[in-house]
Each structure stands twice: as C-alpha cells, then as structure tokens.
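Hello,

Our lab assistant flagged a job as stuck in the queue for most of the afternoon. It eventually completed. Since we weren't sure the result was trustworthy after the delay, we are filing this so someone can double-check. Below is the sequence as submitted and the structure that was eventually returned. Let us know if re-running is recommended.
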Amino acid sequence: MSFVIIGLNHKTAPLNIRTSVAFTFETLPLHLRDCINLPFLKEIVVLSTCNRTEWIAVLASHHSEELEAWIQQNRKLSLSEWQKSIYCHHHKKALHHLITVASGLDSMILGEPQILGQVKAAYQLAKEMGTVGHALENIFQQIFAVAKRVRTGTEIGKSTVSVARAATELIHHFFLNIENVKTLLIGSGDTIERIAIQLKERGVQTLIIANRTLERARVLAKEVNGQAIGLTEISEWLKHVDVLFSSTASPLPILGKGTVESALKGGKRRPLIMVDLAVPRDIEPEVGDLEDVYLYTIDDLQHVVHDNSEKRQEAAKSAEILITQAVDHFWQERTNGEEVSSVIQKYRAHGEAIRKCELERAVAKITQGQPPEKALQEFSMRLTNKLLHPFCRELKKTGATEHKEALEYAKKLGFRT
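-- returned structure --
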C-alpha cells in the first residue's frame, strides 16, 4: 500500500492550465466516483482550489505511474503540459507537503487562512462519497491536528494577508478615497463575502451583490447594506460601477469581451477595475484588451500586498520546524505499527496452518477407529507444543545471552490463567 499526492499548483502551472484541470462543486463528486473504481486505487481525496488541484490517494502498490497517466488523460492535458506542471510526492514527503498546504505555508499569499477550511471540505466530500478509508482517515486527522498547532502555536496565523484582503488592497492602487467607489461583486461564496465585509468596514458606500440565486445575494447584501441583483442584470450595472470582483463556481466564463464592450459603450468614463478570483475563470482574458478596463486574476494578487512579509517569513521557519517534527513522529509510529501488524498477521497465519494440519490428523485418527477422547488429547498436546516451540526456543537463547530487556518483555506477555 502506498500514500501519494499528485498535483499542480500556482508555482508549477499557469492559470490556464490550472483552469483546465480544476473541478466545480458539481463535477468533483462525479470525478471521485470515477477514481474509486480504478483497480489500482484504494482511497482518495481530491483538493481543488483556485491555486491548486491535488489527488491525495492510497494505492494498492508503490507505483503511481498508472494514476498519473489516468489523470493526465482524464483532464485532457497534453503530455508536455502535464510533465511541465505536475509534481508527485510519496509517503512521508507527501504527508509533509499536505500539512504544509493545510497550514497555509504553500499558498500564493503566505499564511492565508482559507486553505485549511478548503482541505477540510475536500476531505468531508470524499467521506460522503465513500472514498476515504482507514488509512486516509488517520492521515487527515493528523493533518488537521498539526495545522491547528501551526496556526495557534506560531506567528503564521497573525498579521496574515488573505486573498480577500489582497483583492481589496488592489483598489487603493487606483483610488485614493474608496468610500465613493461603486463596487459590483459576483458570487456569494466565502471569498466574495469576505471582500464585501472588508469593503464595508473600509467605508465603501455602494455594494452591488450579483448571484445566480437572487435569495443568496439578498442575504449577503443585507449583511453589508448593499443591493442584490441577478446575473442577468450585470451588464446594466457595468457602466455604473468602478470595480468588479467575481468568484463563482461556474464552469464557463460569465462575462465575455462582447458583453463588457457593449455595456461600456457610450461616452468617456473612469477605468473599470475587474478582479477575477475564480478558477475556472469567470471573465474571458480578452476583456483585458478593452480600453479603460484593467483585468486582474488570482495570480496577480501575490504582487499587490507586501506588508508584514518579513514577519510571516520568520513565522514560516518556526512552522516548518514544527511540521517536520510532527511528520517524523507520526511516520515513525505508522511504520512501527505496520511492522507489528505484519508480524502479527504472519504469526496468525502460521498458527492457523498448524491448527488445520493437526485437526486433519486428529480427524483421520478418529476415522481409523481411535477413540475421540484420545485423538483430541493428542491434538491438543501437539497443537500446544507446535505453537509454543518457537517462542520457548528463542526465550532460551535470550536467557543464554543475558538479554534482560527481551526477557522482561517476554514476561509482560502475561500467561494468565
């Protein structure tokens, strides 16, 4: 059995590749069901966010090539794209990587807090789909425990710049006074909610919330004293707003170049800042070619905010030490446990083989006319002798070589009657 992580992220793959690989809320459950039917795979969790997609799996063998090839074909990437973008971690290194991810140390913005919730959501979905077994259950409980210690026991959880904060900081690069900036937010998930709240706290007066489900838009709009609209009304509002944030789970872009160009026709206007935080993208890249439109993606945010970076880098060093120690301890316990289980299985198999052999011998004796009482007496004596002989032989060797620790351990086996 092998624990492996296969994936790509913002460090290894550009946005267009990450977009083609990413899953939506609707497609991920179907993909998990396809994965678990693979003959070489035992358990799996798939983590898919704007910055990464990772397959966290327990395989039947120590070879991950079959899963890598299947994923490449399933996600329809060329071999060259796949080889340039992919990474593969096994066993202890895989555990270290996943704890690092869950702790926010591998994020585009160091220490961002949302990733732990995303890892938990991926694990919970896999449990609901029946693709998590005993092995991944133990591994993920360890991941959550260590990630929590990292967040509470180091400075990485403090002075953190989240994706939402980085997105709102972007506005200050264009507007000195943001109170009068008219803002349109598309979506109603966690990222959009955080941005809306931060904008309200910074004094922004006009917040328009657009969502496919109008009722969900109304809930968020009420919280930030904004206005709710449906997706069909977006084009009407584009000519009136200064900034647009979008983060939905749509598999296809919801704003194209033609729609935006038509909406902005008519007269000179201030620049329109558009921030697309979705993967797959909500806004077609060609929109950025339009005059007076400035289009930013999730990848652009890492260049926007730099405050507290030195403090967070120092915190990351402390967190790395904590993670390494936890991984070493857990993996040693896991390795020892597997070795003990293997010995127990072999000893049980050995005892079962002896039992069957002696039982067949006793049955044959009875069939030949030997009294059952005598046959059973011989059976019990032979079975006891054969089971205890290896133990007694090694115990005598221990006594002869004065291995007192081994002798004391043998005593603890406890021959209770």
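-- support follow-up --
The delay was a queue issue, not a problem with the job. The result is valid. The chain has a mean pLDDT of 86. The beta strands are 2-9, 41-48, 52-59, 87-90, 182-186, 206-211, 227-230, 243-246, 272-276, 293-297.
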